[in-house]
Design brief:
By secondary structure, the protein is an all-beta fold. 0% of the residues lie in helices and 54% in strands.
Length: 119
């Protein structure tokens, strides 16, 4: 059975840091690009960052560039999102997505983890 599980969310003061994890089971990240998305109340879901299946290519939304870092631990089948210099506008539910590079219609979502940044 396939699972994507996020963890690491919580409450942090503005300027602080959090490290989110996205762990996959039942499949390997070798054939998937992994992305982090977030959705705040009343707002549309937005892409935050993604990493290629090899870990060699990364992408960041302008709003998080130079503050967030995405990384892949292939041995653990886990993707991390290191979030620094957090702002109140970063508060949202963060979800990870695994999109197959072999079949574009195949993707998995995690349940999400709440990040709240107090100002």
């Amino acid at each position: 059975e396939v699972h994507l599980v996020e963890s690491g969310g919580g409450l942090v003061q503005a300027g602080g840091s959090l490290r989110l994890s996205c762990a996959g089971s039942g499949f390997t990240f070798d054939d998937y690009a992994i992305g982090w998305f977030r959705q705040a109340p009343g707002k549309e879901r937005e892409g935050v960052s993604c990493i290629s299946s090899s870990g060699g290519s990364t992408f960041y939304a302008d709003s998080v560039k130079d503050r967030f870092t995405i990384s892949l631990d292939a041995a653990k089948n886990t993707v991390f999102l290191e979030m620094n210099s957090l702002k109140s506008e970063d508060s949202a539910v963060y979800s990870c997505n695994a999109k197959s590079i072999m079949l574009v219609t195949l993707e998995y979502w995690g349940q999400g983890t709440q990040v709240t940044v107090s100002s």
